[in-house]
Amino acid sequence: MSELAKHDIETGQTSLGVEFGSTRIKAVLIDSKYSPIAQGMFEWENQLENGIWTYPEELIWEGLQTAYAEMAAEVKRTYHTELKTIGSIGFSAMMHGYMPFNAEGKLLVPFRTWRNSITEQASVELTSLFNFNIPQRWSIAHLYQAILNQEQHVKDIDFITTLAGYVHWKVSGEKVLGIGDASGVFPIDMHTKNYDQSMVERFDKLRSVQQYHWQLSDILPKVLAAGETAGVLTAAGARLLDPSGTLQAGARLAAPEGDAGTGMVATNAVRVHTGNVSAGTSAFVMIVMDKPLSKWHSDIDIVTTPTGELVAMVHANNSSSDINAWAKLFKEFADLLGVNISTNELYAKLFNTILGADADADGLLTYGYYSGENITHMSEGRPLLARQPDSNFTIGNLMRANLYSAFGAMKIGLEILADEQVETDSIVAAGGIFKTPVVAQKILAAVMEAPVTVMKTAGEGGPWGMAILAAYANGKSDQALEDFLDREVFVDQESTTIFPDKRDIDGFNVFMDRYKAGLPIEAHAVLTLNN
């Protein structure tokens, strides 16, 4: 047991980060030296209801309370003390999506997540209007599509926000967003560090928008940069987080952020020319730029770091979901044989078969598309496996093809950044896919054609990054965020770096030729395989 951790718990010097990911809600408590000391988790899955990917509103709170309760129980079990006060708290979540509320605070339609590909018309029209790429995932695209669809709820909108912004609002009363999360709601002006006012005005002047009583600036959350205080935990908020009544109000709150921003923090990739890759249900690479791209690209999101620096983001809607599905199948087979194997051991066994597989997966082709994929222009998802009759159909080749495919759509966007001569000095990777040592990191190095570093905290990921932002917002440093991370948080951080192997690069490139050529197969599956 750490005496420092026990002291920090009892004196309220801890920081808590809670992240609502696509498959789990995780709470990570850190001490004053930024080390994780307790955590809790709640697993959940999005649901496809009436053609829309969503999570029930009540599950948001059940998941939050469960994750918090698990974390608090670990505190009591490990440190023999109750968690009564927390110095600072931050909430983060999957970016984008759409949560509109009326003046009474009622959610007007079920939460529409980033995973939906239902806003193509809005995306195209707004991109043309702004001369700036507006992906289908962005909140403004969801709002405008609802307008184009003449949905009845639009007239009653008083406030729209993201999932992180919603939770923060309910526990603090503050309608704010961190600038990184806000940059996935509406384009940000790099000079003012706020929503681009000229684009706001263009939107408000649209004839279809002028029929409503609101203006866009009235219904968007306020934008805050990292380090700015975003309110405090209210008494009602403390009860929402901890219904047992043990947690006291008063914790300082950081601005709510998106998972992209917390991923940058967790990988120490907020400085210009740094980059990071996050892989989970979705996969994205983010590179902090020193200048804008020469033109907008439909496959590149322009977002920001939590401090408002310009970031090029390649976001693929699908990544590891099909790997998880195959792992579940193999687990079921192990159970049939009466073999007891843990989840971690199962993934390690499966991933390690990749090391002995054929470099190009010998003709196997997979698309792990559980939802639509914007980069390859698929409106819906159809997980798919195809192979040549004489392919070497082994577990190793299957898993290598799945892992290649997990980064396939992302690679197409990376090719655009290469053409734009976007430079990066380092790539750091995070996400559960990297928990098995070496394998995914080795494959990603081939995808990036650059060295890839994974830190010891890679499995902690976003919630740990949000806890760091919470500590930073609590006045832990008067330094710029990037200096704070370099000099205080990551100074002794353990990490491993793997350089790309030419055999893997060549094999992946052969696979990518197959991946691109096979896209009509996936498109036909979308067209013909219907419920």
From TrEMBL:
This protein's UniProt keywords: Kinase, Transferase
Molecular function (Gene Ontology), one example: kinase activity
UniProt record, GO biological process: carbohydrate metabolic process
SUPFAM superfamilies: Actin-like ATPase domain
Taxonomic superkingdom: Bacteria
InterPro entries the UniProt entry points to: ATPase_NBD, FGGY_C, FGGY_Carb_Kinase, FGGY_N
A matching Pfam family: FGGY_C
Family per record: Belongs to the FGGY kinase family.
Name of this chain's protein: L-ribulokinase
Organism of derivation: Weissella soli
